[in-house]
Give the backbone structure.
Amino acid sequence: MNQIKIGKFIAKKRKEKNLTQMQLAEKLLITDRAISKWENGKSLPDSSIMIDLCNILGITVNDLLSGEVVTMDNYNKELEKNLMEMVKQKEEADRRLLTLEWVIGILSLIVLFVPIIIASYLPMEDWQRVVLIFSGFIPCFVGFFFAVKIEQVAGYYECKECKHRYVPTYKAVNLAMHMGRTRYMKCPKCNKKSWQKKVISKE
């Protein structure tokens, strides 16, 4: 999607409705700075407010994502193009998240082991060793919490039995036995347990 084109289209439609950036922002319950970023092509409207934005500007979501009013002749073509682009962007974002998961996991292990190594080799009181080691467990626990959360929401898990791809609950991911990103979970479609692999795409 062309963010510059979409931004100019938003600005054009806003002006046609005789709205300032501040007035449009107030209607959407956001800041005028966000509107400015859209119109300058620096970011896109969040999906949670796209429909409200389109209703205010008198356009369709397909128009918004195309950066122009789409005629009926090429409506389906533009819709399919925009949907494919959104799927592609989600997959790229999921890949970045899964890379971030590895970074968080490695940093969490470093934060855990450094205090243990220091406590093992440097002379200190026993209570100081306990405090030092415990200080490594807290950030490590928080880091792993975020890492598992990222793994849960990024991409999908594929059932080995029925090939259904879905996003499980955080509880299911957290409590499942696992080998890397492959987890032993119950599929919500066929209700069978299997070792399910993490995949990026829905299909």
